[in-house]
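Reviewers asked in the last cycle whether our approach scales beyond single polypeptides. To address this, we selected a multi-component target totalling 609 residues and predicted its structure end to end. The input consisted of the following lines:
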Amino acid sequence: MRKMILGSLVVLTFGALLSAGCAKKNVVKTEEPISAAQSAPAPAPAPATPQQARPEAPAAQQPITETTPSREQPVAQETAKDAGKGAAQEVQLELQKVYFNFDSSDLSEEARGSLSKNAEYLNRQAGTKVRIEGNCDERGSDDYNMALGERRAKSAKDYLVNLGIASDRLSTISYGEEKPADPSHDESAWAKNRRDEFVIVK
Amino acid sequence: MRIIMLLALLLLAPQMTQAAEGYIDVTAPVSRKLKLFPAPATGLAGQVPPEVSKELSELFGMDLGLAGPFEVSGDGAGADLILKSSYSAQGGNITLECRLVDRVLNREITAKRYSGSSKELRRMGHAFSDEVLRAVTGGKGPFTGKIAYVTKVSGNKEIFVMDYDGHNPQRLTNNGSINLKPDFAPSGKEIIYTSYKKGNPDLYRRELFTGLEARISSRSGLNAMGAYSPDGSKIAMVMSKDGNSEIYLISRDGKELARLTNNHAIDVSPAWSPDGSRIVFVSDRLGKPQVFIMNADGGNVHRLTTNGAYNVTPRWSPKGDRIVYARQGGGGFQIYAINPDGTQDTQLTSAGSNEHPRFSPDGRFIVFSSTRDGAEAIYLMRADGSGQTRVSPNKSQNSHPTWSVNW
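The resulting structure, written as structure tokens, was:
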């Protein structure tokens, strides 16, 4: 950058010396090439193509380029009917949530207790399928939390499978930090948000 | 005399262009900024509506003030450069002529005429700002690019695009679900993003002008954080179909080309070097999330960040010389930039929590999200951290900005 500024100052100085050396008559300041420019063919509007500067006829002393900006098309908006239908959701009170420490997918003793109760419920409800939803608090990176939520869901799934629940009854999904249970920004909200939820999907 | 002067300029101009190679290094100290005066617009025929004149002055003032090489001044006295504009309107159409004049030499550096709908006034102005930077530094400005971003809408997240300065926000998605992490194709004409609209976090590719869309990856688990390769032919992304989050390459149509990581750790947030030969990403394979670099075939993995306990969301500069990322600490995130060899690790932000940094396509700027004024909002700064400016379009929670090439 410094080099370039210096370079342009050199240009300025060099030019200034030249113009100083050869009197006013040579300093022709033209703003009249409008007529010349008007003879230039107007470029056809080109929707959705990046605009291109069009050089004027090479002989023109003060080239003014005619540029028609590409039509800026309104971007196409998704219509509401495009929205997909999520899997039917029915939160079961019998299935307990599981909570985690910050940046951890380890199951605490309390978490393992909750999972054991969830396993008992699933044993009573043969054939019921459950989606385990992993969630994070807002403090981590949302990219990283997307993967951490996945890890939390899988950690619960693995534990349930170890307790004898067929793995094809258990699916996992991560919402990262996108679905907080409590939208507040404090320790108590974060603790509620670092969780797995268990949703019956039939 | 005129011929001699033109010759002198012709001889010097290519050198300036070569020195710049379309990329201005704004991280180097500038000895002196060029004083630029955006003169009030004059009428090509008749009067210029005062609101048009005001809008243009403010637009040029913001664009060129942010640009780096200029100090925008409120009058022509002592200015090195004067930006003159003339305006006319007929029916719904307008014509705008802009000239950049070297006041010292009394010489026109560049001139452009734009014509089109009166709704395109700002676009014409930004186009000339881009041109001023090209004429002065050899590298075109980024001001006609667009910023795509994520807005929180009643608990859901939708994707919008806006002008770089926050004007003209337009909604892209409208599905009432969670839509995340837009990434522009190098052409600027399509985006990929992740949406939960069909239940699972799947990756979609959408043409911006037609709205045509394809779900290109819907494997079990995550299909997220898609990043176009610099030539637009491939996408690096995160999937968890094989057990935990790993980085893969897929084609634009979603065909799996390669798996790049393979371990029990979290591997996320891939981003390409500008030559497409390497990928920078985040992994917690050593315990906490840190930034790593690997070859684009998954080989030669090595750790980049060594300071800080939690470093995430890296993005490579278009010139290749810097990698910007966010570091957690003190209850939030701050943005840092580091050389790809691990040297010159520099903090760029300090107010509020700042995340999701990405370079503008010309490398002059970094756009990011910040909570410094309350709700998360979109900001930009020069690549050296100077000139931090809010460009968020409204008071909503806006995040994950990404800046396209010139539209």
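Chain A has a mean pLDDT of 71. We regard this as preliminary and will revisit it once experimental data from Aim 1 are available.
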